[in-house]
């Protein structure tokens, strides 16, 4: 599954960032940044889901360990958050702890951890939806408006016509374009409303992804993430002692997984 997502991601990114000089642009820069760059970054991150560190001197296949942790889930230990990394523990929330029973367990499971690539891929699709809808509604109308003779006579920097073209040919070309635009005035209201609708849809998709990410990580974690990071970054080094960064608490880079192995005798 991860290989398929990675292949689709690379192909999607290549197709979106391919330079085509003859392509007609039908969206503004903010629209393209929203639907192309954001979606491309999400597809690019939808790669390998989880990578377990195999214990030394253990003949455990990495693939089996990765699949086990992917299915069973990973966790951190909140009671270890306030310990010093590199001295008391290896990573924030990762270390040895006393396990009493499942009801009184101090483990905080990150059930979303292994599903991040799939979530990124889904979110990338949602960011592409407004572009795909607008492309279907637009029906190459802008492309049909772009008369090559007019385009070749326009100087984009000065917004004027080049003087090296034939004056008579230039006049006929401009007259032809002017007659067309005047004749079709007020006939493109649906076209304008469709574009505005797709722009509004961009905002809706953005709000949906914010809510989706907040529910995906845990109610309130993502909504309060920005203010918590800003508040933590303003603290002095002496004030952060014994505190865990919100970036490590909400987005742990390393988590734990219990893998039980038994020998032939059952021990």
Task: Summarize it.
With 267 residues, the chain is mainly alpha-helical.
Account of the 3D structure:
The mean pLDDT is 77. The chain is mostly helical. The two termini are 34 Å apart. The chain contains ten helices and four strands. The chain is elongated, with a radius of gyration of 28 Å. Strand 3 and strand 4 (160-161) form a beta hairpin. Helix 2 runs antiparallel to helix 4. Helices cover 51% and strands 4% of the residues. It has a two-stranded antiparallel ribbon with strand order 1-2. A two-stranded antiparallel sheet has the order 3-4. It has two domains: 2-146 and 202-250, no CATH class; 147-187, no CATH class. The chain has helices spanning 2-16, 29-45, 62-72, 116-138, 141-145, 148-152, 167-183, 189-217, 225-233, 246-250; strands at 74-76, 108-110, 154-155, 160-161.
Write the topology of this structure.
Elements: H1 2-16, H2 29-45, H3 62-72, E1 74-76, E2 108-110, H4 116-138, H5 141-145, H6 148-152, E3 154-155, E4 160-161, H7 167-183, H8 189-217, H9 225-233, H10 246-250
Helix pairs in contact: 1-2, 2-4, 4-8
Number of domains as seen in the coordinates? 2
Share of β-strand residues: under 5%
SS summary, helix count: 10
Order of helices and strands: HHHEEHHHEEHHHH
SSE-based structural type: mainly alpha
Taking pLDDT < 50 over at least 5 consecutive residues as the criterion, the unreliable ranges are: none
N-to-C span: 34 Å
Spatial order of strands in the largest sheet: 1-2
Organism: Orchesella cincta
Family: Belongs to the pannexin family.
Transmembrane segments: 112-134, 190-212
GO molecular function: gap junction channel activity
